[in-house]
Amino acid sequence: MEPPIDSPVFGIRLDGCRYTVRPSAYALLRDEDGRIAIVRAARGWFLPGGGIEADETAEQAVEREAREECGLVIEPGHILATATEIVHSPTGDAGVDKASVFIAAVVVGRTTPTEADHELVWLEPAAAVRRLSHKSHRWAVEVTIRS
After folding, report:
1. pTM for this model (two decimals)
2. Domain-located, residue 123
3. Is 107 exposed, middle or buried (0-12, 13-18, 19+ CB in 10 A)?
4. Where would I find the beta strands (DSSP E) of 7-93?
5. Which H or E element spans position 145?
6. End-to-end CA distance of the chain
7. Please, which residues bridge with residue 88 across strands?
8. Does a structural domain hold residue 85?
9. Pairing outcome for strands 36-41 and 44-46
10. What is the pLDDT along the chain (147 residues), one digit of tens a residue?
11. Are the C-beta atoms of 99 and 24 separated by less than 8 Å?
């Protein structure tokens, strides 16, 4: 999945660094109080979601990731935005172009999460923007709350 030409790119590509494009999908979930679902993991704070596997769509990826990370059964809606986040390895010699799709979704049920190192947290939109680790995730929340 290649992002549209007008999709923003967050981060800088470094000369001499090898990059791998990693299609990713993230859910934008709001509860009845308007709070945003975010996931706290060892590496930071993120929207529920992650890499799209070879045999799945972006919608299937957010459904799977929300179940695994948060124990949430979700129903994906429409695509809100696309963006690319450039992420570097700690050594700086390799990186990932996370070509991401941000999808509106609603919670329709709950199950047991399978990733014990992930914690679901519901935050007010402004607090979520301050907390999220990736600029593309912050941008996607800002786009969502403006619309």
Report:
1. 0.91
2. yes
3. middle
4. 9-10, 18-29, 36-41, 44-46, 49-51, 72-88
5. helix 135-146
6. 25
7. 95
8. yes
9. antiparallel
10. 444 446 899 999 988 889 999 999 999 999 999 999 999 999 899 999 999 999 999 999 999 999 999 999 999 999 999 999 999 887 778 899 999 999 999 999 999 999 989 999 999 999 999 999 999 999 999 988 876
11. yes
Q: What is the CATH number of the domain that holds 52?
A: 3.90.79.10
Report if residue 1 sits inside a domain: no
Domain that holds residue 139: 9-146
Q: Which residue type occupies 125?
A: P
Q: How far apart are CA 140 and CA 129, in angstroms?
A: 9
Question: What is the tally of structural domains in the chain?
Answer: 1
CA distance 141 to 28: 7
113 lies in some domain = yes
